[in-house]
Design goal:
By secondary structure, this protein is an alpha+beta fold.
C-alpha cells in the first residue's frame, strides 16, 4: 500500500496524486466515499454502474432464466407469488 503526504487547502480540498488515481481507476467526476473515525480518514471509490453494466446484468439474468426454464409469460406469476410471501 502506498502512502503520500499531502497538504490540505484552506477550502479543505486534497489532490490525490496522479499515480494513485490511475491505479484506482479514478478520473474527474468519479464518486468517492469518505469514512472518518477519531484517528483516520479513508477514501473509498464508489463504482457507479454504467448502462453497459446494466445491460450485461440483464443478459446474465436472461441467460439464467432460460437455463432455469422460465419464460417471459412466467414473470407476472412469479412477482405475485413473491409479493404474497412478503405479506405473510
Amino acid at each position: 500500500m502506498e502512502m503520500e503526504i499531502l497538504e490540505m487547502s484552506r477550502e479543505g480540498t486534497v489532490r490525490i496524486p496522479e499515480g494513485m488515481r490511475k491505479e484506482m481507476g479514478l478520473s474527474g467526476g468519479s464518486w468517492i466515499a469518505i469514512l472518518v473515525d477519531p484517528d483516520s480518514i479513508m477514501l473509498k471509490p464508489i463504482r457507479v454502474p454504467t448502462v453497459q453494466d446494466f445491460k450485461a446484468w440483464m443478459d446474465e439474468a436472461r441467460d439464467w432464466a432460460e437455463e432455469a426454464g422460465y419464460r417471459e409469460e412466467d414473470v407476472s406469476g412469479i412477482v405475485k407469488e413473491f409479493r404474497r410471501g412478503k405479506q405473510a
